[in-house]
Amino acid sequence: MARKDVFRFETLLKLRRQKEDEAQRTVAARMGHIRELEKRQEALNSRIEGQASSSRMVLSEKTLNLDEIRLSRHWMIRLRQGLLQAEAEMRTQRAILASERTRLSDATKNRKVLSRLKERRLDQYFAEQDRRDQAELDEMNVLRFAYARIDEETSAS
């Protein structure tokens, strides 16, 4: 009687798939955060360009307003500080992303090891089933041949 094949590590395989999925979600979230930072940097760059052009316009006027020039310079400094902070945060996020990608790679590798083990076990199971089926067929053919010979001998006598 054939037994049902049971992969003993199925629960472990499910856990490893969950860890891999979690790592994928983490990497995707981090990449989304990095895209938001890139957008923020682009916005800051455009604001800096706008502020620089407005500062040039103020400086090109015949009468200079000193308070307006100070305010413009102060605002430009604040924008550049924001840009520097965004760049620093971007470097930090990219470093974290690299470590999270390493974790994702490890999780994928661990899951693939168990998946291959499961596939090999399943192949072994089917090969064993094929051997058993072939042995049963061989036995039935031998019995048929033997009964045919017995019938032949009894009818010849």
Structure description:
This protein is mainly α and 157 residues long. It contains two helices and no strands. Helix 1 (10-60) runs antiparallel to helix 2. It is rod-shaped, with a radius of gyration of 37 Å. The model has no long low-confidence stretch (mean pLDDT 89).
Percent in strands: under 5%
Q: How many strands in all?
A: 0
**What is the overall pLDDT average?**
89
Helix content: over 70%
H/E series: HH
Cα(first) to Cα(last) distance is 40 Å
> What is the rounded Rg?
37 Å
Q: Which consecutive residue ranges, at least 5 long each, have pLDDT under 50?
A: none
> Which structural class is indicated by helix and strand composition?
mainly alpha
- List the total number of helices: 2
Main beta sheet strand tally, sense and closure: none
The coarse silhouette is: rod-shaped
Summary, kept brief:
With 157 residues, the protein is mainly alpha-helical.
What is the secondary structure topology, with strand pairs?
Layout: H1 10-60, H2 66-156
